[in-house]
Amino acid sequence: MTTREAIRAHLDHTVTETHFQHLGMRYKGKVRDTYRNGEVLILVTTDRISAFDHVLRQGIPFKGQVLNQLAAWFFEETKGVCPNHVISIPDPNVTLAHRCHAVPVEFVVRGYLAGHAWRTYRDGHRTLCGKTLPDGLSQNSRLPEPILTPATKAIAGHDEDTSREDVIARGILSEDDFDLLESRALDLFARGTELAAERGLILVDTKYEFGRYLDGTFRVIDEIHTPDSSRYFYSDTYTDRLERNAPQRQLSKEFVREWLMDHGFQGRADEQLPDLSDEFRIDVSARYMELYEQITGTPFEPDTASEPIARMEHALASLASKGPA
């Protein structure tokens, strides 16, 4: 069976909801369902996909497996740079993690002028989140050095750009803590850049989330360097396409956003969210697998032997909710 045939066979078996009642109350994020077991979090990465801050109605076969295992791979590869929250990976879709008090700021690091940063620059602005950008740059240009462009995390709607000064003034973080996390984010980006370069990729931009552990130290949480949180370009064609002002070959969720825009949706309230076609769902799944294989250098082997919910229930059977501590 080819990869596309395996994906097609699982179009009706995606994990878009979980309800593991023995684990207690569920917190539903855009992609992950989180359960708390004392000081341990059970993070279930579903096959949901979001764009423009909307969760699409159709799941993507094996996306949860790809994201969970890719995040685990990157957490392992970067643990010498910054401690993380991972305890174990008991199932392809599940991570057990230490509970940390999440910092309500996303630490977005940009090495290239793409996405939101480019649109801001194109509109004539030369300051982004307190960082000054030089004149003369074009779309997808490499920045003189990676910059931090933090954003406040929104419970609903779009996250908003912020700055070091604003975060400190609002009492979200002290100066020392902000500077520590900025340094950690830039160090993680440098390590991610090295890992990507080894596999013929450019890490364009990404976001990091941090949490404070019981002992007061900070750990990187959520996910790291996945296609849901990062943008990658292929390095072999980067310069040629930049000089021709041509779109970059990339591995990210950007092509999902482009598909939605081509179908008349950009996230505005007056627009109808379109349904993803089966063929496009297969394309998306294949692209996620491609990134996993490109970045890790190993084949992605989806678990197709059993129903995913039953498999996860078996893996989590020994856990029982202790409720809030």
The run of helices and strands is: HEEEEEHEEEEHEEEEEHHEEEHEHHH
- Give me the CATH architecture of the largest domain, please: 2-Layer Sandwich
Helix content: 25-40%
| Number of helices in the DSSP assignment | 9
Number of domains: 2
CATH top level class name of the largest domain: Alpha Beta
CATH superfamily of the largest domain: ATP-grasp fold, B domain
The best one-word shape is globular
CATH fold assignment of the largest domain: D-amino Acid Aminotransferase, Chain A, domain 1
- Rg estimate, integer Å: 20 Å
Beta-strand content estimate? 15-25%
Overall strand count:
18
Largest beta-sheet characterization = 9 strands, antiparallel
**Class by helix and strand content?**
alpha+beta
Assembly state of the chains shown: single chain
Q: What is the CA–CA distance across the termini?
A: 48 Å
* Residue runs with pLDDT of under 50 for 5 or more positions: none
Mean pLDDT: 93
